[in-house]
Structures are given as C-alpha cells and as structure tokens.
C-alpha cells in the first residue's frame, strides 16, 4: 500500500518534556512546505488513514490560526491552534490542542531542511507542559497517525 | 514609589524547562483580565519602568496575534506572538518571542483565579524549548520587568 521506504524517527527526550520527529521526503523543500500550508493539500495527507478532514480555518501565516475536524465512523476529533511564525520553505511554529482536552497545549516547531538533489528532511519538535502530558500523547497512538500521515504525504508528493 | 505590598513569586522548575510566576492583586478578576486584553490598558503597565510601548497589533482572541515595541533612550525591543486560546476572566494561552532572537519561542499560560473579596491571583507558566533557554531568560533580568510591570498594574487597578 505504502510507496515509501522512509523511516520516521520519533524520540522522547528523557531530560525534557519534548518529542522529536524526523522524516525525509523524496521531494524538493518547496513542495513539502506547500503541502503544509495549502488547505486543499493538507487535507489529503494529515492524520491517520480512514479519516476525513474538514477544515474550519487554516491560515498558515505568522499570526494566523487553524481549526479542523477529523471524522470517522466512530466519531469526530477537532484540533485547533495558532501560527506563531511561518517562514516560507524554512520553518513553521504553531500551537496545538485537541479540543477534547483544551487545557493541554503543545508548541510545535517544524523545520524544513533542503538536502539537495530534490530531497527534504522535516524536523519536528513538540514541547509539552510536562513529561506526563508528553507520555500520554505518545501512549495515545500518536505514532500511527504520524506514520500513516507521512506515508500519505509521500504519495501526494509523488503524484 | 510603589503602591504594592504584594510579592511576586518566580520559580524555575529543576525538572522541566519552565518558569512559574505567581502574583496576587487587590482587584476583581474581571478588572485584572481586562487589563490584559485592552491595548490601551496593557500599554500602561506591561514591561519595566522607563520604557514606552508602541502596539502594532494586539488582538487578544483565540487565534489572534500581537506585536509591540518597547522603547527607551538606548534602543527598541520588539516582541510578537499569537493567542492560542483566550477564555474571558479565566485563561490566556499565547506564544512569545523577542524579535532579536526569533528562533527562541516560549509558550505562556496565564490563569486568572478569583480569590473572592475582590482579589485575584495570577498564575503564569512559561514553557521553554530547553533548560538553557529558560536559564538565559532568567539571567537577562526578566524578574525586573515582571516586578516593575506588576507594580504598574497595581497602580492602574487602584486608579
């Protein structure tokens, strides 16, 4: 099913409440970045397989914000946040909350690294309020959503 | 000079890259909250004494953003961020960056606690990317700005 041979590396720092996610893509940095900022592209890959994504707002600019709902037969899951800073083809810093647990907020930094030869490394850093909150997110099956989402992004970038 | 008898408590967590700031005010929670969201009030107290504050934008709503410049005879210091969530009289979650070090972003949560009898406790939590970043902020003299700002807020609330 998947067209990727890439591995996603997910690392929980023992000394700080962070998660680092690193993933390479066989596509130029401009294409990987565009797939993160254009709502019509984002909804084709973000999140695990088997869910639809409805976007209320998705304004990827410095000072912008977003809100979207993932839906499957079992229910609906809404997420929202704001964009602290957006640097084209370089970096996106945003907040992130699952609306079901609105008091738990993470700060996410995505760095887009041009590897040359039309390849890109995406480096994600998620900052949690506590190690407990970080460990709960990992235990919730975050890894599946990340891996399946990036497989869909591979397919989109190859298409 | 100061009209306050309140103490500000600033605590650096040894186990996580956070700073907690706790301060009580002799004013109802609605007044303390309003002093955080109305730009004309904010500019009268935010930051250390001896600086003027120019606001480019200050839209304290969920998904809003801000940018302002503190200025004195020595120079200008610009700060910006986005508002992740604003709950009236309860909670503000925002990002924060000094434009001179744009790669260093903190996530700040302010909780407004109604103590009854027209008194309010403000509980602030700042989350840094690393303990080094947190310690650098503390070493930069953050405490002076916080204390002088809250003394000015006391004066504003009493006025």
UniProtKB/TrEMBL annotation, chains A, B:
<protein>
    <submittedName>
        <fullName>SRPBCC family protein</fullName>
    </submittedName>
</protein>
<feature type="domain" description="Activator of Hsp90 ATPase homologue 1/2-like C-terminal">
    <location>
        <begin position="26"/>
        <end position="157"/>
    </location>
</feature>
<dbReference type="Pfam" id="PF08327">
    <property type="entry name" value="AHSA1"/>
</dbReference>
<dbReference type="InterPro" id="IPR013538">
    <property type="entry name" value="ASHA1/2-like_C"/>
</dbReference>
<dbReference type="InterPro" id="IPR023393">
    <property type="entry name" value="START-like_dom_sf"/>
</dbReference>
<comment type="similarity">
    <text>Belongs to the AHA1 family.</text>
</comment>
């Amino acid at each position: 099913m998947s067209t990727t041979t890439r591995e996603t590396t997910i690392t929980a720092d023992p000394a700080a409440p962070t998660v680092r996610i690193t993933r390479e893509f066989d596509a130029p940095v401009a294409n990987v970045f565009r797939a993160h900022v254009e709502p019509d592209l984002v909804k084709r890959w973000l999140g695990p397989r088997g869910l639809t994504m409805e976007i209320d707002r998705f304004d990827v600019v410095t000072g912008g914000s977003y809100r979207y709902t993932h839906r499957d037969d079992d229910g609906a899951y809404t997420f929202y946040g704001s964009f602290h800073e957006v640097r084209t083809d370089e970096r996106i810093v945003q907040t992130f909350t699952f609306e079901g647990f609105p008091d738990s907020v993470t700060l996410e930094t995505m760095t887009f690294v041009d590897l040359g030869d039309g390849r890109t490394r995406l480096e994600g850093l998620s900052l949690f309020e506590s190690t407990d909150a970080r460990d709960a997110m990992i235990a919730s099956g975050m890894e599946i959503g990340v891996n399946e989402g990036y497989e869909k992004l591979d397919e989109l970038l190859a298409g």
